[in-house]
Every structure is written in C-alpha cells, then in structure tokens.
Design goal:
homodimer, alpha/beta, Helicase, Ruva Protein, domain 3, Dna Topoisomerase Vi A Subunit, Chain: A, domain 2, 2 domains, two-stranded antiparallel sheet, 8 helices, 41% helix
C-alpha cells in the first residue's frame, strides 16, 4: 500500500538508502523523527548536509579532516618515513587506538572491487604514488582488510610501488590474541602456520 | 579517540540518535553519505527536514496525511459508524493490507508508557473522545499491541469510552494462522483457550 503522505514516503525512501536499512526500519526512523521537536530535526538534517558539502580532505593523506593538513600529518612527532595505507578513517581510528604506530597514513577511500565498479582511479592511489615519488619514504605498510578486495588492492599497490626504492610490507595475519585454536577458521590457522616466526616473548593483551 | 573532523563528529552524533543505530553503524552511514554526490545528500537532508516541518495530520483520525482530511476519512465508501484505534501509521497500513476492515481509524501516536514518560495527554486521546462525543459511532475497536503498554492504553480507553453509548471491542488474541501449538508461547496459548468460540469453518490463509 502506498503511504498516505508523500512527505513520509520521500523521507522513508531516503532513509532506506542508508547502508543496512530496509523500508521497515526506515519507517521506524521517520516516525521517530516526527516525534521530535522541529529544531532537533533541523539540526539532524543540517549535520548531514554540511558533512557532505563542507567536508575537507587532508591534502597529504586524504583522510577526512577539518584542516587542509590533518592533525596526524601536521604532528612533528610522527615518523615521516613510514606510510600506512588503509581503506578509510575507521581504520585510522582503529590503528591509532592500538598506540603501536607512529608513522603517517594514506587513506585510499575504498578498495578495488570490480563487482561494485570500484577501480584504482576511484581511489586515492595517484596521491599515494605522488607522495612516494617525492621521496623521503622508507616503508609503505599495506593495512587493508583480509578480503578478496583487500588482497587485490594490496597486490595492485605492491606492483605500483615496486622499484620505487622503498620497502612494501603488509600487516600480519594470524590467530587473534586471546583466541583458541579450535575457534579459528582453517584459512587463518593455515596462514598463521605458514607465516610462523622465531619464538619471542609477547606482551599478552588479554 | 576523537574524530579528526568536527563535521564528521556532528553527523555521526546525529545519525546515532536514530532508533537502533549505534556509533559504529552511524559512522558507516556517514562514510556512505560522503561517497555520494552533493545533490543526492541534499535531497536526503531536505526529505528529513521537510517531513518534520511540513507534515500534516488528518483533522479526523490524526494519521499522517497530505491533506487536512486523509484519504481514508474522505472515502465515502468507508463505514463511518466504526473506528479502529491504533498506535501509529504502520498499524493502519498493516490493517489496510488485510482488506478485512472497512471502517475508519484513529491514530493515537503512541501508547501510554510511564517508563518513557508518555501519558494520555501526549496521545491523541482527546481527539478520539471528541469524535465519539459528536455521535454516529457505534463501535470502537481497540487494536493496540499485546504488550503491557498496549494493554494499559486499552484499559484506559475502555474506561474513558464506557457509558458513551457505544460498543468497545478489542482485536482477538490467539495462535497465529499457520502456527503449530508447540511453537506458541504459554501466555498466548492459555489466552486462546480461555477465548475459545463455537466451531466455525475458517478460510485458511496458509
């Protein structure tokens, strides 16, 4: 049945474009918004519009930023010889939260995915190659997801960066800290055996 | 860790106010919106703002509408002696989809819920009592959810409507059509036994 209100229909249609949101959930969201005061909904609407209209990307690492140069790229304490390549800002946040990395980042804005029509030209690959071409970079760490798309992108970048006189590495894959062996999938366990390394004492995060 | 962009932070904060959406999902939504073209995001933002700013409620049944009188209330083929009381527009749509009901509706806009600070004055109860007081109504069907809040609201409305010279009924509770007895919870099964009625041939929807 068509809805009794074109306004409601339009709002539900738009909310249902959000990732993971079906029409039933979109309707629940629309009714929730209707129960709020007008200024509150205007703030919601404005925050979304301004995000897209006024967003700034760091001219160095392409991360979402408020400044032409983001806080990480502008920080003189970071190791400027090291670039960690990630998919999006969530990965930057996740890695920063480990407090294990003191280099710079490069945010691709996605991974190569022919199924979704995403090729290298849709990502910030050109900017990465420009950065490494300017010199001063000793190592590029590929920190992309352990998926088909992530692996494809890592392979592509590895080939592009080969011969640029820098080391290309990728983050380790293996069993999770605190994980039991019988809980680990076969691919990961197989990989962790193939990638075994000489014994050393680890700090245990558990 | 704080986000590198106040714009992103604001948008994530707002998206996380939607029902059932946490900050992680809100971030995924914000990044999805950032990947879209500007006019597309403006349409999204406008649809939400206009929904709240320009919404019209039917002067009779309080349903969300585009007209001062909604399509159902304006339809001369509907039985005007019968009012079905529901929580919100989703219930109107659900009942309309059954094609079993030809009367009018009254949309309360919620149910009484002291836990959430929702009392009778926050609902369209006054409008319902005004409608029944104008006469011409023979039956009010309470079609609220089978929850504590729904039952409380039904009880409250039943008392308010008692003595108004009309019949107050409520929709049947029992086992689902197509349902096996051993799948039904004890409350529902007990209720369906207590509410048993003389045998009659049913159309089977399964």
């Amino acid at each position: 049945m068509a809805l009794s209100s074109a306004l409601l229909e339009a709002a539900v249609d738009q909310l249902a474009t959000l990732p993971g949101i079906g029409r039933r959930t979109a309707m629940r969201m629309a009714l929730d918004l209707l129960r709020r005061e007008v200024p509150e909904v205007v703030r919601f609407s404005e925050a979304v519009r301004r995000l897209r209209e006024e967003v700034v990307y760091c001219s160095e690492c392409c991360n979402i930023s408020d400044q032409p140069l983001c806080a990480i790229c502008a920080d003189p304490r970071r190791d400027r010889t090291l670039i960690c390549v990630v998919e999006d800002i969530r990965d930057v946040i996740a890695i920063e939260n480990t407090h294990q990395y003191k280099g710079l980042y490069h945010v691709l804005g996605g991974v190569i995915s022919p199924m979704d029509g995403v090729g290298p030209d849709d990502l910030h690959v050109k900017e990465l190659l420009e950065r490494t071409a300017r010199g001063g970079i000793q190592e590029v760490v590929l920190a992309l997801g352990a998926t088909l798309e992530g692996d494809t992108t890592s392979f592509f970048l590895h080939r592009k960066l080969a011969g640029a006189g820098l080391q290309v590495s990728m983050i380790a894959r293996g069993i999770s800290v605190g994980g039991d062996l019988d809980q680990v999938d076969e691919m990961t366990l197989g990989r962790s055996i193939a990638d075994r390394k000489p014994y050393q004492q680890h700090a245990h995060a558990g």
